[in-house]
Protein: Zn(2)-C6 fungal-type domain-containing protein
Organism: Penicillium citrinum
Amino acid sequence: MSTRSYQGCWTCKRRRRRCDNARPTCQSCERRGVNCEGYEVRLRWGSGIASRGRYMGADKPLEESVPPRLKGRARDLKRDGKGAKFQGQVRVEFDLMVPGPGERLSSKCEKQKEEEAIFNEYLPMKVNVRYDRLKNRQVITDGINVLHSTTARDSMLQHRLPQLCEESNALYTICLAFQLSLSSTRSPLFLEYFDTSLRKFRSELACSTTLSDGTLTAGLLLCSIGLMHGMPWTIHLEGMHNILQSHGLSDTPPDATTSLFRHHLLEVMGVMDLPCFSVGRQINSSTMSRQGSSIGIWRRYCQPSIPRKGVEPVSGLPRSLLDLFAGIGIDTTEQSFWSWSGETGSFMQCYLWEGHRLAGILSLRRHMWMLRKNVVACESLALNPQAVCSVDATALVARILANLDALRLACTERPEEDRFIKNAILYPLFVAGLEVEVMCENRQWQKTIRNCFLGSRQDEILLDLLEEMWTRADPDLNVDDLAREREMEMGLL
């Protein structure tokens, strides 16, 4: 039996701190200079007494607490008396433990009511916001709005979700697991529903002759849980892609017969598949495209031959900018980002899009740096030179953080104007923090990054990765390798 504790090490439990469950000792204790007491199971019987086994009669799990064994006639008399008494006690306890039909029905109805309440939290009539005093900011607490960087009511998922839950048996359970994952006080219940969600989705995926909109939505929500909590999630993308391919999904943009909602789901799938929006992605050579760590869903199915307008609602980014991100490592250059004309949007959106555009340049440079470390790739790199601009990394990081800090202040001053836009800042914030040399030279910028994070579990994991990068101060350290060492697969959405 596994002794893994999902509640953290004993030191973090006692101090009521969040633990990262690292082995053999957690990183939180090491950073604080505290002795980590580990994760071993501790036997505690309280005032009870063991009734059988080697510790029978003991009030503590220690050899010296085992009472001496009675000899001869005294032992037989005690055993006979205890046996009759024990049989009667077991009969009474068994009668009390077995529920009647009415009790079973009552407990089932109570569970259904609890699940309905959790689902209503996930899909509320209005936006639910909690004020975090420690972070001095408002935090969105309902799942449907955490998923979007634009108003969820304007998306196609809001009003379709109840009907989609009827199509997919797994989708309803995944919605419950997603909502429970947002609460730090309901983690045991989340793990229970997450395990159930995995079993239902895998069973549903194995039995799917065609991938329905409900099953596809369930898979994307399951990926969202994984990318927010460092659990494996791209494997589900690959599974859904394989089924779509086996049922006629060609390498051309969806035609007129494809519904708008299916096209929306393919776009979400394509955004999740972009390499720059994942950290520590597990590479499957049999399904990856020439981008190395991506299937290439956006370019193959979502990006037509003519430029498009409009904002993709989950990422909050213009589709024309996503086209550039999808071309990193293929045909996008630094000049492509500098020449991007932008789109018309609110002031807050302009801050966000400018941060992403500049972060895209840093991502492109990091991709080229990784290629240069590969001797074989250097030969192909010489055949396709990339245009490099003269703006250094320090200037780019400063401009990214300036835009994100302005966005943070604007959200604080005008919380009702565009409250979901904060969901989209992870990518530029994290990419700016990956410039280790710049961050070590300008340590006040580290504080800016900490202030911009929203304080979710996803933010804590990503910030912890950055903190280790800054502590080790090794410019050759690859954050994807660091995440894989921790067996994490994160997303920046």
